[in-house]
C-alpha cells in the first residue's frame, strides 16, 4: 500500500506504530479481553489475507512491551462511477480496559491517518457505534448520514426480555408476517437455484450488467472469494433465471450469537434494478424467507432491494415507525485521506449520503 510510513510515535508511556507479524498473539489476546472472541483464522481472513493491501492495515499501541491497543482497518477497492479507489474501513478497535481514558484510541487513529496521508488509500468510511463515534469526529471525520436497514422479525420467543424490541416480535406481528407470506405469490416464470458453492463468476457477471453510480465496493471474483471467506458467517448463494439466463442473484449470511440466529441478505446483484431483475428478486427473496424459517430475524441493508418488495414480505425499515422507536441507527461517517484533503471522489462528495450505494458487504462485521 502506497503512503504508509513505518514511524512509531511515543507519547507518555505508550508507543503507537504499524502492526508487525510478531504482534499477532498480542492482538488476538487483546481481542479476547475486549470482545470475548476472535481466533487466528478470523484474523488471517480479515487482515492478513486482504487482497488489496500488501501488509495488514493495523496499528497497535504498546505499553511496557505489551500490546494494549489495536486500530485495524479493512481495505476495499471502491468504485465511484468509472473510477476505482482504495479505501479503508475501521473495525475491531481495541483498548485494554486498564489503559482506557488515556487517549490511546485517539493516538492510534491519528497515527494511522498520518501514515496514509500520501498516495492510496483515498478515503475512510465506517459505521461506528455511538460510543466510538465522538472520537472519530474529533479527528476531522464527518457524519454522512444514516444507512437504512430493514428487518423481518420471525421468532417472538427469541426477543423475550429484550426491552422495547420485544414488542416487534409480539404474536400479532408474527401473525401478520405469516399472512404476508401466504398472500405473496412469486413470479412463476422465474427459476431459483440454491448453490452448493459460491458462483463467484456468475455473481460478478450480474454485477457488471448494471453497476451503480454511487460509491460501493467493486465486485469481481477475487472480491467475492475474499469477502465470503469470513469464518464467522455461513453464506448461501442463490441465482434466479428467466429461461436459461441468470438475471439476478443474492447471497445470505447466517450467524448465531447472543441467543439470536440472524440471517442477512448480504448481497444483491445487479445492484441497480431493471424489469428482469426486479421480477426475479421477488422469487429470490421469497425463497430466502422460506429457507430462513429457523432464523429469529432477517435483515437487508441499503436500497438494492425494492422497498415495496421488502414491505410485502414483512421487512420493516429502521428509519420508520415502529422500528425507528426501538432500533439504534446505523450511521455512516467518512473522511478523505489526508483528513485535510478533498472530500470529492470522482465528482462525488463523501459527505453526501446520495453519493453512496452500500450493502452489508461493505460492513466489515457482516
How does this model look, in words?
The protein is built from nine helices and 19 strands. The protein is of the alpha+beta class and 366 residues long. It folds into two domains: 9-146 and 330-362, Aminopeptidase, CATH 3.40.630; 149-317, Aminopeptidase (3-Layer(aba) Sandwich). The two termini are 25 Å apart.
Q: Looking at CATH, which topology of the largest domain would you report?
A: Aminopeptidase
Number of strands: 19
**Helix/strand-derived class?**
alpha+beta
Helix content: 10-25%
Mean pLDDT: 89
CATH architecture of the largest domain: 3-Layer(aba) Sandwich
Count helical runs: 9
- Return the string of H and E elements: EEHHEEEEHEHEEHEHEHEEEHEHEEEE
Uncertain ranges: none
Tell me the strand percentage band: 25-35%
Characterize the overall form: globular
In the CATH hierarchy, what is the superfamily of the largest domain? Gcn5-related N-acetyltransferase (GNAT)
User: Whole-number radius of gyration?
Assistant: 21 Å
Q: Please, how many domains?
A: 2
Give the C-level CATH assignment of the largest domain: Alpha Beta
Tell me about the largest β-sheet. 10 strands, mixed
- In angstroms, what separates the terminal alpha carbons? 25 Å
